[in-house]
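Run log, item B.
One chain of 140 residues. Sequence copied directly from the ordering sheet:
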Amino acid sequence: MSIPILTDLPIGSIVSFEVTAPVVLATSYQDCKVCGYTDVEGARLAGDSPYETATAVQPTLPEGAPTDPRDYMFVTLELPNGKRTNLGLPWIRKETIVVKTNTQHLIRTVNTGPNDTARIMELFARAGIKLESITLNGNT
């Protein structure tokens, strides 16, 4: 298991991943926005408890990972609920990182009408896909 580097979590991207210590930290982080990077003191000043958390997480870190939180960077994340948190890069399981791209899809349906809009929106919501808009066109 290797440690993530800054390019694995680009600033501004939406990411999901698992951590090395799900008992100490949340089990997984889904659809979090990468806001930036800081050191341990920046994380502390932001209201987190990086020294205490680092001590609790240390037994779960991959072999060769730095054990002193002053020796690694922290990623600042905006969680889906709007709250921000800082996680030490070694606490993230690199192989689980998924970076969502901002790709748009144009989907056309046939034999549907205005009464189907709610059902279509529900299908996308169940799949975890955010719809920006639905445009109804007349008969073609």
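Observations after the first pass:
- The beta strands are 14-18, 28-38, 74-78, 84-88, 98-100.
- The mean pLDDT is 89.
Flagged for discussion on Thursday.
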